[in-house]
Amino acid sequence: MKYSDQTLSSQTAGKISARRNKILAGGVIRLKIFLATSIAGSVFLILYLLYRLFMNPGMPLSFSQGAGYLAGLLLLIFLEFILFWSGIIRVYATSVQLGIKWRIIGIVCGFIPIVHIWALCRIIAITSREAAFEKEKFLLDQVRAQSQICHTKYPLLLVHGVFFRDFRFFNYWGRIPYALKQNGAVIYYGSQQSAASVASCGQELAQRIRAIVQETGCEKVNIIAHSKGGLDSRHAISACGASPYVATLTTVNTPHRGCIFADYLLEKIPEKVQKSVAHKYNTALKKFGDIDPDFLAAVQDLTASACSLRNEKLADHPDVYYQSVGSQMNCASSGRFPLNMAYPLVRHFDGANDGLVSMESARWGSSFTELATPEGRGISHGDMIDLNRENIPGFDMREFYVNLVAELKNKGY
C-alpha cells in the first residue's frame, strides 16, 4: 500500500510547522521587548530633559559628558533598531494570521508618529495569539500522536468544490489535511475538473475512486466533499457505479437543494452576458488544467430547480453512510469577497447561510451538524475549507475535522 509516503511527508511538515512557530514566537518576544524598552527609554529621556531644564537650568554639560550621553543614546538607538527589525522580519516572514491587510497597515503606519505604536501593538497582539494557539495545537498532536485517532479503516478522499482544483503548491483544504495526517489519516484528492456539470465531474470521481482502490487495495474510501463536490460525489456513487468502493460520504456546505438565488440571477442576467462571462472563465480555467471546462453547466447545476430534479432521480445508496455539515455567517462583513456580497441575497431567498449555501440546503443524510458561533463573524463557505488559513474566534476548524474523522473511525469506517 502506498501509505508510507504520506506519513513521511506529514512528519516533515510537522517539523517545518514547529520551526516556523518557534521563529514566530521569537519574533513576538523581540517586538514586545522593543516596545517596552523604547517606551521606557523615551519616558526616561523626557524626564531627564525636564530635570535638566527646570532643576538645573544653569548647569552646563562638559564636552566629555555630552559626548558620553550622545554615544549612549546612539548605542541605545542602534540596539533598538536591531531588536525591532529582528522581530518584525521574523513575524512578517512566518505569521499566517497577519495576512496582507495587517502587513500593509504596519508598513504604512510605521511612518506616522503615535499611530505606529498602535499598529505595532495590534501586530504583537495578533501574532502573540497565533503563536500561543499553534503551540497548543502542536503539543496536543504530540500527546495524541500514538493514538492515531484519524487512522480510519478506509482512506479519506477529499473532494473540492466548483471553480477550484487540487494544486500541489496550494491546498484547497488549507491546513486541514496536515492536521488529519498528524493524527494518522491517509488522504487522497478528488482531482476532478473545477468547472463542469455534476454528471461529468461525477464520472471523473468514479474513475478516480476505482483507481485508488486498485492501486492501494484499500477496498473503499471515505469521501469528505465540500460544496459542489458533494453533488459530484453523490452522482459518482448513485449513477456511475462507485457505490461498492465508497464507505461513507460526508458533505460539507453542499447545496443539495440548490440555491434559489442562483435561479434568480440566471433568470435576470441576459443570455448574451452569461455566455460572455462563461467564455472568459472557461478560457482561464483551461490554463489551470481543466480539459473541457463548462462554466454555465456548473452554475446551472447549482440552481434549486436543477437540484430538485436531480434529487428525484438520484437515490442514496443503502450501503453508503451519508452525513452532512453546514455553517452560517453572522453578518455580511463576516466573509470576504464575494461572500460578503452574496450573503444578503442568499439570506433573502434561502435564509441563514454561509455566504453561498443555506443551512437548509446543506442538510442531507443520516445526520446533520450545524456549525455557528454565538457572536463574532460566524463561519463562511470558505472558512469550512480553511481557505484563508484564518483562526476563527470561538471555533477551531482543524480540530473539527480531526473529530469528524475520529468519529468515522469509531463507527468502523
What does this structure look like?
- The protein is α/β, with parallel strands linked by helices and 413 residues long.
- It has 2 domains: 4-142; 149-410, 3-Layer(aba) Sandwich (Rossmann fold), CATH 3.40.50.
- Helix content is 56%, strand content 8%.
- It is built from 14 helices and 6 strands.
- It has helices at 4-54, 63-94, 99-109, 115-143, 176-182, 198-216, 228-239, 260-268, 271-287, 295-300, 304-313, 339-350, 359-362, 397-410; strands spanning 156-159, 187-189, 221-226, 246-252, 321-327, 367-371.
- Strands 2-1-3-4-5-6 form a 6-stranded parallel β-sheet, sandwiched between helices.
- Helix 7 (228-239) links the parallel strand 3 (221-226) and strand 4.
